[in-house]
Every structure is written in structure tokens, then in C-alpha cells.
Design goal:
The protein is an all-alpha fold. It is built from 14 helices and no strands. The radius of gyration is 23 Å and the shape is globular. The chain starts with a helix and ends with a helix. The model has no long low-confidence stretch (mean pLDDT 81). It is found in: Cell membrane.
């Protein structure tokens, strides 16, 4: 019975991994070979698209052209780095204290305010797009990287994740620190941050995976294509540039893959914590 279950799970795992194998194989194909496979789709030719998991004539030419002959790629890469780093730094500076305040302090309308946080977290970008646009336009931040960074930096989702971990800190531990003479700020720095580090790391991993792949926000707030992140690099690529598109997809995937593998344990903890109802 176990072997049957393993075979079934292995089959579905292969299906889930196929897009990655598809990208890796396509990035190692030459232009003519890849064009022959994808012409029915990208060139509106007859028949159906076909594909091989193993290139007939493997080559690294696509990676060489992408990394050495495509200056636009590096501009968009560093735009992605700036946007992602700015958003994550903002979430640390604003989200961590907010989560600690919700978890450890009582204040009027706390429940109502936290409900608003959860409601905002559940709203898709399309709902808040107009309000964000109007505010950013009045602040004169449109068509700058800040137009993407600031709304993301004050996202409510990381607050919700970190809040779950901070509430898990035993109250007796906090009270012991107060009895020993520690102030609230000292408790937060020397007790809350170390014990809640799992939630913070989990929120940062989830935040990176989201920010690295932003599409709608840059398209809405950035009209200057020189400010676009790497996630918008691929829509401008056609059949002739298909190998570069596959290579770029693989390169874009690598940072997210490394972050995911490095923070997988924290990520699983965050998903479990987020699933617990208030």
C-alpha cells in the first residue's frame, strides 16, 4: 500500500515540477530547435506545439546572451533588488513593532483595529489600487520606485504572521522580565525578537516570494520602463528571443528558490500559524 501511495505522490510531484524542467530544458536549446517546437503557439503556425525534456543539441548560448549582451536585463534585475529590499526593510521597521503591540498590549478598540488589518490583508490589489494611486499621486511619488515600495512596506500580512508567533510567547516569561526590572523596550528587543524570530523569518520569506514577482503594482504605478522590475522583463520577448526568455525565467527563479529552500522550515511554521483562527 505504501508503494502505491509513493508512486501516486511521485507522479503528482513530477507534474508539479514539470514547469521547472520545461524551463531548464528550453534554456539549453538553440533558437532553431526551440522555434520549431513553439512555432505553432508563438508564430500562429499550424498543428500543436511539441517539446522535449532533453535538448538535442544543448547549448549555453542563451545564458551568455542574457548575462553578457543584455544590459536591460541587469537594469531590471537591480530594480527588483531595490524594490524587494525596500519593501522587506519597511516591513521589518513597521510590521514587527505593530505585531508586538497587537500581541502584548491592550488598548481601546484593539479587536476592531486588528479586524481591519485582517480585512485589508484579504483584499486583492484591484480593490485598493485606486486609493493607492490617488494617495501616491498627491504625494508626488508616481513613476518612482517609492510608489511600489511604500504600499508594500506597510502591508498587513506580515503583521498577521508575526502576531501569531508573538502571542505564543508565554506571559509568565514576560512578567518575569518585568519583575527583574526590564522595561517594555528592553523586553521587546531582548525577549520578543529572539523568541519571535521564527515568525519574523517566515514573514520575510513570504514577503520576498511576493515582492520578487510583483507584476500588477509596477504596471500600475511605473510608466517609465527603466524602472520596471525583472518580473516585467518577459512580456516583451517573442519567438526569436525565446531562448533568452527561458534563460531569464530560470535566472529569475533561482533567488526565489534559494530563499524558499533556506527558509522552508520557517515558511511551514508561518503557514500553520496563519491557519489558526483568531
Amino acid at each position: 500500500m505504501k508503494k502505491v501511495i509513493l508512486v501516486i505522490l511521485g507522479f503528482f510531484a513530477l507534474l508539479a515540477a514539470y514547469p521547472v524542467l520545461f524551463l531548464a530544458a528550453g534554456s539549453l536549446m538553440g533558437k532553431q530547435e526551440l522555434a520549431g517546437y513553439l512555432a505553432p503557439v508563438l508564430a500562429k503556425g499550424g498543428g500543436y506545439a511539441a517539446f522535449r525534456l532533453f535538448p538535442m543539441y544543448p547549448t549555453l548560448r542563451a545564458y551568455v546572451e542574457l548575462l553578457l549582451d543584455s544590459p536591460g536585463y541587469f537594469i531590471m534585475f537591480w530594480n527588483s533588488v531595490r524594490i524587494t529590499a525596500g519593501i522587506l526593510l519597511g516591513q521589518l521597521l513597521a510590521g514587527v513593532p505593530a505585531a508586538w503591540g497587537f500581541a502584548r498590549f491592550e488598548f481601546p478598540f484593539k479587536r476592531a483595529v486588528f479586524t481591519v488589518y485582517v480585512t485589508l490583508m484579504m483584499m486583492p490589489f484591484q480593490v485598493t489600487m485606486l486609493s493607492n494611486y490617488l494617495v501616491l499621486d498627491q504625494m508626488g511619488l508616481m513613476d518612482t520606485l517609492w510608489a511600489v515600495i511604500l504600499p508594500g512596506a506597510f502591508s498587513t500580512f506580515p503583521v498577521f504572521i508575526m502576531y501569531r508567533f508573538f502571542t505564543g510567547i508565554p506571559e509568565a516569561v514576560v512578567e518575569s522580565a518585568r519583575i527583574d526590572g526590564a522595561g517594555e523596550w528592553k523586553i521587546f528587543l531582548h525577549l520578543g525578537l529572539p523568541l519571535g524570530s521564527g515568525g519574523i523569518c517566515s514573514a520575510m520569506v513570504l514577503g520576498f516570494l511576493e515582492c520578487w514577482n510583483l507584476i500588477e503594482q509596477p504596471l500600475t504605478f511605473l510608466k517609465n520602463k527603466e524602472l520596471w522590475p525583472l518580473s516585467l522583463y518577459l512580456p516583451d520577448i517573442g519567438l526569436l528571443e525565446a531562448p533568452a526568455a527561458f534563460a531569464a525565467s530560470v535566472v529569475v527563479l533561482l533567488p526565489a528558490l534559494f530563499i524558499f529552500l533556506g527558509g522552508q522550515d520557517y515558511l511551514e511554521q508561518g503557514i500553520v500559524a496563519a491557519a489558526v483562527k483568531e
